[in-house]
Amino acid sequence: MSKNTVSDRFRKVDVDEYDENKFVDEEDGGENQMGPDEAEVDSLIRQGSLMGALQAVLKNPPINTKNQNVKDRAEGLVLKVLSSFKSADIEKAVQSLDKNSVDLLMKYIYKGFERPSENSSTVLLQWHEKALSAGGVGCIVRVLTARKTV
Amino acid sequence: MSIYTFGLEPLSCHAWNKDRTQIAISPNSNVVHIYQKSGKEWNKIHELTEHSGRITGVDWAPETNRIVTCASDRNAYVWTLKDGVWKPTLVLVRINRAATCVKWSPMENKFALGSGAKLISVCYFEKENDWWLSKHIKKGICSTVLSLDWHPNNVLLAAGSADLHCRVFSAYIKDIEEKPGPTPWGSKMPFGEVLFEHKECGGWVHSVSFSPSGDTLAWVSHNSSISVADGPRGKQVTHLTTDNLPLMSVIYVTENDIVAAGHDCCPYQFSYIGPEALGFVKKLDVPKQSSKGSMSAMQHFRNLDKKATTEEDHNEMETLHQNSITQLCIVEGPKTNVEKYSSVGLDGAMVVWTFKSCTTTSN
């Protein structure tokens, strides 16, 4: 068999990058999005005001930013709040959220599924069940179709 | 409501003739079948076989009795009935990708064709050379055009596309029509002009529909939402997210009532009264409560043995359609007061629904 002596680096070229008509998402100024306020959320958790912490952590979602650190920090914060709830309180907490917040919560839940840690899956699944009964399958469809997500 | 199953193949599209005695459907193939109604049955009377690719759109012009078909083979044909046989005429649409949807204009002197070539082809008949010509609308379109609808003034055209935008274009062709008067969407309407554009509809825009007056425009997109743009009120857009699977088709049944259906296999009614006043009214397919007879003990244990569950058989869906609804079409009634509309779906069935406006009292 003859050995290929010419370089085959061309096979690793991403041709889509050179397509003039490539579809690009609109860039929305996301540089200033910092995600939910860590200090505020932490203090609310310490005070035991978990509903308040939930509302606070669902504010300022880092949707438009490209900064992965901000997104990871936000996700970690959300996970912290979700884990601090008792199972029995989850349903009431979800009921207190409005439609957009339920959609946002579902986005964070699926983001959390992507990188499972020790206990995160159990907690997330409990929240997923309650969020699903509040938001329906439409809520999950919106997680899948959102081009800019947390 | 009445249901008729045309076979096992999904129905890609359908169109009615003027008196609703005939229906043209395509069973997910390169052929269009025309069925004639006789009593409760439908009999196939014609087969339109000219396309080589899967048929993606059919529209039947009621007054001029012409059918336009488009397919993934990048062609469109206009069919005219001569001596009881439908004869095709090729339309030079000049697209290099599949056609996705086609619609006759209200006055039936032209039609619009959406395609994967990121453009809309507006075609009209040129008498001198006895052929169909096309003009292209490309401005701003970055991906496949998925749906089209004409404004009642025969000039404005709404288009939903896969680039997550919903737009209103002008399809004014000066060779065949007079200059249109001003509308809430704009007054200057040169061909191809974008009069309204909504970015980021959240997902692919599967279907668009103008209201009977043309003042408001509704569309459904893949993120399970329905939106309405209000022309006279500053073209303000109102969104409504639903808890269900995405909707695939939307039509207006009165000036304020909208019916939409999709992957939930069931039509839903919405109403739009003004900006921020877009609301869900009700599900239009209310299944009859099937009599849940008591199960004998023998049946109970047989089920436990066979299926490891004692629940009743849930093989069939509760809705009339057993699979997603792909297209809705007005059947009876003027656009301002639709009495009957039809739906076709991936289950090969066509259902004719009766619409009762909420204002009428039921006896």
TrEMBL record, chain A:
- Transmembrane stretches, by residue range? none
Q: Segment Disordered: which positions?
A: 20-39
Q: One of this protein's Pfam families, by short name?
A: P16-Arc
Subcellular localization: Cytoplasm, Cytoskeleton
Signal sequence, start to end: none
Entry keyword set: Actin-binding, Cytoplasm, Cytoskeleton
Organism's domain of life? Eukaryota
The GO terms describing molecular function are: actin binding
- Say yes or no: keyword Cytoplasm present: yes
What InterPro entries does the annotation carry? ARPC5, ARPC5_sf
One GO cellular component term of this record is: Arp2/3 protein complex
Set out the biological process GO terms recorded for this chain's protein.
Answer: Arp2/3 complex-mediated actin nucleation; regulation of actin filament polymerization
Do you know which SUPFAM superfamilies this protein is assigned to? Arp2/3 complex 16 kDa subunit ARPC5 (SSF69103)
Q: Which PANTHER family match?
A: ARP2/3 COMPLEX 16 KD SUBUNIT P16-ARC (PTHR12644)
What is the role of the protein in this entry? Answer: Functions as component of the Arp2/3 complex which is involved in regulation of actin polymerization and together with an activating nucleation-promoting factor (NPF) mediates the formation of branched actin networks. Arp2/3 complex plays a critical role in the control of cell morphogenesis via the modulation of cell polarity development.
The entry's family comment says: Belongs to the ARPC5 family.
**Name the record gives this protein:** Actin-related protein 2/3 complex subunit 5
Q: Taxonomic classification, please?
A: Eukaryota, Metazoa, Chordata, Craniata, Vertebrata
UniProtKB/TrEMBL annotation, chain B:
Which named protein is this?
A: Actin-related protein 2/3 complex subunit
Keyword NADP, does the record have it? Answer: no
InterPro entries, sorted: ARPC1, WD40/YVTN_repeat-like_dom_sf, WD40_repeat_dom_sf, WD40_rpt
Which gene name does the record give?
zgc:86896
UniProt keywords (A-Z) are: Actin-binding, Cytoplasm, Cytoskeleton, Nucleus, Repeat, WD repeat
Q: Which family does it belong to?
A: Belongs to the WD repeat ARPC1 family.
Question: Which GO molecular function annotations are given, in alphabetical order?
Answer: actin filament binding
The protein's role, per its UniProt record? Functions as component of the Arp2/3 complex which is involved in regulation of actin polymerization and together with an activating nucleation-promoting factor (NPF) mediates the formation of branched actin networks.
Q: Which PANTHER family match?
A: ACTIN-RELATED PROTEIN 2/3 COMPLEX SUBUNIT 1, ACTIN-RELATED PROTEIN 2_3 COMPLEX SUBUNIT
Q: Name one GO cellular component term.
A: Arp2/3 protein complex
* Natural source organism: Denticeps clupeoides (denticle herring)
Q: What is its main location?
A: cytoplasm
Nucleus in keyword set: yes
Q: Which GO terms describe its biological process?
A: Arp2/3 complex-mediated actin nucleation
Q: State the WD repeat positions.
A: 48-84
Q: Where in the cell is it found?
A: Cytoplasm, Cytoskeleton; Nucleus
